[in-house]
Amino acid sequence: MAEADTEPDGDERDGDERDAAFRRRSLGEIESARSRHMWTRSAVHATDDAVVTGQWNGTVTAFDADSLEPRWSVDHPDHPVAIATIDGDEDDDGRGETVVVAGRGETGSIVALDSETGESRWRYETAEDVGDPVKDSVFYLPYVVALEVDEDGRDGDERLYAATRRYEREGETRRWHSTVLAFDADGTVRWRYETDASPIALDLRDDGERLAVGYNRCMGDHDNGLVVLETDTGDLAWTWDPGTAGDRRVGDVSFDGESIAVSSHGDKRGYLLGPGGAERWAVDLATKTEIDGETLYAYPNHAYANDGRAVFVTGNTYAEESRETKRRHPNEHRIAAFDDGGDVLWDAAVEGFVHELGTDGGTVAAPCAQNFRVRNPDAHAIRWFDLESGPTGCERLEGIATAASVDDGTIAAIEEPVAYHDGDVTHGEYAVVFGRPN
């Protein structure tokens, strides 16, 4: 919580009909995606009474959950790519719920907004930690890749955690600069953890005492795919690594009690770790497989664990000797769930690339884009699953689904238009899609 010669097996129930519970609201214009998936360009976050969206043009909008009418709209200094909320307590300090929006851009800004008005409460520029971009390219911009919120806080106050990174390249030398930050609710920085690796995921243990950080690329002195930090101080508690050659390490991390589910980019397996990094079990997800003389693999990009269950999602097929192949790994674009002993509970096709997972308790929502080798618009959808039993529903979209959020039965997602490189039709529109399916 990653084109086969034969169709993958597994439960294919996906509720092909559109769900009448879903509604949509246009978000205006955005450049159409092409056949291959693009970088993260949108964000969405569902709460009990609102849906907040972040658009590539910098606009952040809060929509009423019942009417989908805008409550407020403001400009973010960067491209908003992640959203979280801090509940707050009006009885104690007059500060109600806060919407926190993370950006990718010149400043890598984290902005805290009043949930009712959109008024700015505080702003922090993570470029102060990771440095300014050295090139005018999206891949070189400071990028806040993940947010985590501790509503209770070990000292009674809410806390926010963020992972930010910046990439640079000079000739054949590639470098990452990254920082994990802990904030008090008022924006005060409590501590920093800095490395020369590329963070990709954060997850907070339920008791708020440990923070897991997944590192995807390790090219410098930092050489661990998983770091677990003490949340009070930012001190290192323990580390783990798949122990594989190369700089690819971890795709995602997810706490379940004291266990952590980890998707490994190093060996394309899924792991469940105990305290201190003890390996409880490991499963092959999209490990290297030879088909017609080619060695193929796919990255397990997502992991989610809850209540003794762990789910992993795999991505696109790659060939060991080339980035291009007409073949497909048999476990490409799959979601699979495992019990606490590592035995498979169920698996299913997601049919295309999943940018992220929306999760809440036993519900997992996967926003699915196209399989770029097949380029079938029927694959575009929001699919949701029960951790115990598997596929439970599907909302088909004309465009690709690129972001999702789940909150107490509510599913929100972003649709983006796509135009395949070998076609002359644009599929879908830029919109927020929102529903409470049964």
From TrEMBL:
Residue span, Pyrrolo-quinoline quinone repeat domain: 57-240
Region annotation (Disordered) ranges: 1-27
Signal sequence annotation: none
Compositionally biased region (Acidic residues): 1-14
Sequence ranges of Basic and acidic residues compositional bias: 15-27
Cited PANTHER family: CELL SURFACE PROTEIN, OUTER MEMBRANE PROTEIN ASSEMBLY FACTOR BAMB
Annotated protein name in UniProt: Transcriptional regulator
Native source organism of the sequence: Natronococcus pandeyae
